[in-house]
């Protein structure tokens, strides 16, 4: 068996002019959305996604609905290694993935359990 996984984080790491490592939210989501589309077209399934994120209000990745830009990076950049999505960016990405996969409501698992299957 093959289990496909997408890592939209590492291939999208960039450095600013000041040498600060960062990632653009739109690049991360674009790669993930493209991966989901390819699997849909091929009739296969994405088995996992590798994300680097935190529940903290860090300013390590650019963009998202907050509109973080390079000037915001110094506000709360705490990673010693790789830039992480903050709590708002992570939730936004989760909702965008749910929309992209057509799973806007309860999961199939929850529906099966509800009906005793």
Automatic annotation (TrEMBL):
Q: Pfam families given for it?
A: DAHP_synth_2
- Enzyme Commission number(s) of this protein: 2.5.1.54
Q: Which reaction does it catalyse?
A: D-erythrose 4-phosphate + phosphoenolpyruvate + H2O = 7-phospho-2-dehydro-3-deoxy-D-arabino-heptonate + phosphate
The pathway that the record names for this protein is:
Metabolic intermediate biosynthesis; chorismate biosynthesis; chorismate from D-erythrose 4-phosphate and phosphoenolpyruvate: step 1/7
Q: Does the keyword Amino-acid biosynthesis apply?
A: yes
- What's a BP term from Gene Ontology annotated to this protein? chorismate biosynthetic process
Positions with a binding annotation for Mn(2+): 10, 52, 82
Bound how, and how many: what does the cofactor note say? Binds 1 divalent cation per subunit. The enzyme is active with manganese, cobalt or cadmium ions.
* Listed GO MF terms: 3-deoxy-7-phosphoheptulonate synthase activity
Q: Which UniProt keywords apply?
A: Amino-acid biosynthesis, Aromatic amino acid biosynthesis, Cadmium, Cobalt, Manganese, Transferase
Report the sequence similarity comment from the record: Belongs to the class-II DAHP synthase family.
What PANTHER family does the annotation carry? Answer: PHOSPHO-2-DEHYDRO-3-DEOXYHEPTONATE ALDOLASE, PHOSPHO-2-DEHYDRO-3-DEOXYHEPTONATE ALDOLASE 1, 2
Protein name from the UniProt record: Phospho-2-dehydro-3-deoxyheptonate aldolase
- Which species does this protein come from? Xylaria grammica
């Amino acid at each position: 068996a093959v289990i496909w996984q997408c890592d939209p984080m590492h291939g999208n790491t960039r450095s600013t002019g000041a040498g600060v490592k960062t990632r653009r939210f739109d690049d991360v989501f674009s790669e993930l959305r493209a991966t989901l589309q390819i699997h849909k077209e091929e009739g296969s399934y994405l088995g996992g996604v590798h994300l680097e994120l935190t529940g903290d209000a860090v300013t390590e990745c650019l963009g998202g609905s907050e509109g973080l830009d390079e000037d915001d990076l110094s506000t709360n950049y705490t990673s010693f290694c790789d830039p992480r999505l903050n709590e708002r960016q992570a939730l936004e990405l989760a909702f965008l993935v749910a929309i992209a996969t057509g799973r806007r409501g309860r999961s199939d698992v929850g529906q099966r359990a509800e009906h005793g299957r």
